[in-house]
């Protein structure tokens, strides 16, 4: 098995989580998993130069504090690419998709962060997702995902239930969300193939090999020179 297709170890997940924690606006690790799941199963390709900024919640890739050095930046790209490949591999092979969920202080995996990450990715290509929303037979695939995504919505009118979700219903929603990702992946398969032909590239970061030169293509896959993209981020 190629190193780039190996699932992350627990220690590597912790490493990614620590990197993300540098910015209060960055996604959590669970949210990142949902975000990637939506990008992979969704209708349209989204370039890394766009979704990396969404992960950090702003223009500064690497968080408010930036990267300590170029090696650390490359490490982050490498780790999240492996996680992307792990999700994509499961979906393309037809294996059961299992979302990466974290337990709260009470030992409950609520899945809200995961679903919110999925919803964030959908907002990057709203027009593409409209096809599924408008499909009366298949729109239900999104119901459990959006129910979990809006459970904590500040607007009570957006919350799916008037009462707190009990353990049994939460489990049903999580199972439905996981199954929904697999079905959505199949639903948009033809459209994604068309997008790949048009774009002529897969939207995953390129694994850096050694130190990145300032005038070389940025490893995030944006197509820009490193000095004009991630290399412009403050290094500490």
Q: How would a textbook summarize the main sheet?
A: none
Low-confidence stretches: 200-204
Overall number of strands: 0
Shape: globular
Query: Which class of secondary structure composition applies to the elements?
Result: mainly alpha
Rg, alpha carbons: 18 Å
Strand content: under 5%
Can you walk me through this structure?
With 236 residues, the protein is mostly helical. The chain has nine helices and no strands. Helix 5 packs across helix 7 and helix 7 (143-149) crosses helix 8. The radius of gyration is 18 Å and the shape is globular.
Ordered list of secondary-structure elements with their pairings:
Layout: H1 10-20, H2 29-41, H3 48-56, H4 70-93, H5 112-124, H6 126-133, H7 143-149, H8 167-187, H9 189-199
Helix pairs in contact: 2-4, 2-5, 2-8, 5-7, 7-8
What are the defining features of this structure?
single chain, 236 residues, mainly alpha, 9 helices
Describe this structure in a few short sentences.
The chain has 236 residues and is mainly alpha-helical. It has 9 helices and no strands. It is globular and about 50 Å long.
């Amino acid at each position: 098995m190629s190193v780039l297709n190996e699932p992350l170890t627990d220690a590597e997940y912790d490493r990614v989580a620590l990197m993300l924690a540098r910015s209060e606006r960055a996604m959590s690790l669970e949210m990142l998993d949902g975000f990637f799941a939506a990008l992979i199963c969704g209708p349209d390709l989204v370039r890394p130069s766009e979704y990396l900024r969404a992960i950090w919640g702003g223009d500064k890739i690497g968080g408010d504090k930036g990267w300590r050095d170029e090696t650390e930046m490359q490490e982050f790209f490498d780790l999240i690419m492996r996680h992307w490949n792990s999700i994509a591999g499961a979906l393309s092979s037809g294996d059961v998709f299992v979302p990466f969920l974290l337990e709260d202080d009470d030992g409950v995996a609520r899945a809200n962060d995961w679903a919110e990450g999925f919803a964030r990715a959908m907002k990057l290509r709203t027009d593409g997702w409209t096809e599924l929303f408008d499909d009366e037979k298949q729109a239900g695939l999104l119901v459990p995902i959006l129910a979990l995504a809006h459970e904590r919505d500040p607007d009570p009118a957006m919350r799916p239930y008037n009462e707190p979700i009990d353990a049994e219903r939460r489990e049903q929603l999580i199972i439905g969300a996981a199954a929904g990702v697999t079905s959505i992946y199949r639903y948009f398969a033809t459209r994604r193939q068309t997008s790949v032909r048009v774009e002529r590239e897969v939207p995953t970061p390129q694994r850096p090999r050694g130190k990145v030169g300032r005038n070389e293509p940025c490893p995030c896959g944006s197509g820009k020179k490193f000095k004009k993209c991630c290399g412009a981020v403050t290094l500490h």
